[in-house]
């Protein structure tokens, strides 16, 4: 899984969604992405999709990818 984070605000948003929605945080991020897409806002659509992916990575209890 490739993950791109433009800045720290994505991590903050992911943490806030996890705190507010628990196991459903990924679904909430996906819903926000879908809403942005429906409004024609491709920038926020991409941002929320990346946050959705980040939530998945954060929820895994082990390292993901190459560990040095």
Indicate how many domains the architecture comprises: 1
Mean pLDDT over the residues: 92
What gap, in angstroms, lies between the N and C termini? 18 Å
Low-confidence spans: none
Strand content: under 5%
Order of helices and strands: HHH
Measured on Cα atoms, how large is the radius of gyration?
Answer: 12 Å
- What is the 3D form? globular
Number of helices: 3
Helical residue percent?
Answer: 55-70%
Give the biggest beta sheet. none
Number of E-state strands: 0
Structural class: mainly alpha
Write a compact overview of the structure shown.
With 68 residues, the chain is mostly helical. It is 66% helix and 0% strand.
Question: Features of this protein?
Answer:
68 residues, mainly alpha, 3 helices
């Amino acid at each position: 899984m490739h993950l791109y984070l433009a800045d720290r605000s994505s991590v903050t948003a992911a943490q806030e969604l996890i705190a507010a929605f628990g196991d459903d945080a990924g679904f909430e991020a996906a819903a926000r992405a879908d809403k942005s897409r429906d409004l024609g806002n491709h920038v926020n659509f991409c941002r929320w999709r990346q946050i959705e992916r980040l939530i998945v990575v954060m929820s895994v209890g082990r390292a993901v990818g190459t560990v040095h």
